[in-house]
From TrEMBL:
Principal location: membrane
Record's GO cellular component terms: membrane
Protein name: Uncharacterized protein
Lineage top rank: taxon: Eukaryota
Transmembrane segments: none
The organism of origin for this protein: Amniculicola lignicola CBS 123094
Keyword Membrane: yes
Classification via Gene3D superfamilies: 6.10.110.10
Membrane association type: Multi-pass membrane protein
Family from the record: Belongs to the IFI6/IFI27 family.
Transmembrane found in the keyword field: yes
Length: 116
């Protein structure tokens, strides 16, 4: 069983750890935001790729991919990404992937940071 730590002492421990590990702290905060609100990561990503609610944006990476392959199977990776940008079934898939990525990267960051 863990010993009880008084609140002021706990705050001191936390602020000392943050001061000693500023990059790791920021990393965990960003991952926490993505875990709670995955749209904070998925919406800007899909927008940057050119996936919009009206379809692929002209001249974007998304339209280049679509013109290269010319055939987009239903339920495929491209169709799921476009569905996510349109708020369809792909949004749930993208949100879950973002949350899993945030958890995995926090775990890796924790393991790498244990030595310091």
């Amino acid at each position: 069983m863990l010993p009880a730590i008084p609140y002021p002492e706990f705050l001191g421990l936390v602020t000392d750890w943050i001061a000693a590990h500023p990059y790791q702290s920021a990393f965990h905060v960003v991952n926490g935001v993505i875990l709670v609100t995955p749209a904070a990561a998925t919406v800007p990503f899909f927008s940057a790729m050119g996936f919009t609610a009206a379809g692929p944006a002209a001249g974007s990476t998304a339209s280049s991919i679509m013109s290269y392959f010319s055939f987009v199977p239903a339920g495929g990776l491209y169709a799921t990404a476009q569905s996510a940008a349109m708020g369809g079934y792909g949004a749930t898939v993208a949100a879950g992937a973002a949350q899993v990525g945030a958890l995995a990267s926090s775990a890796v960051g924790y393991i790498w940071g244990r030595g310091s």
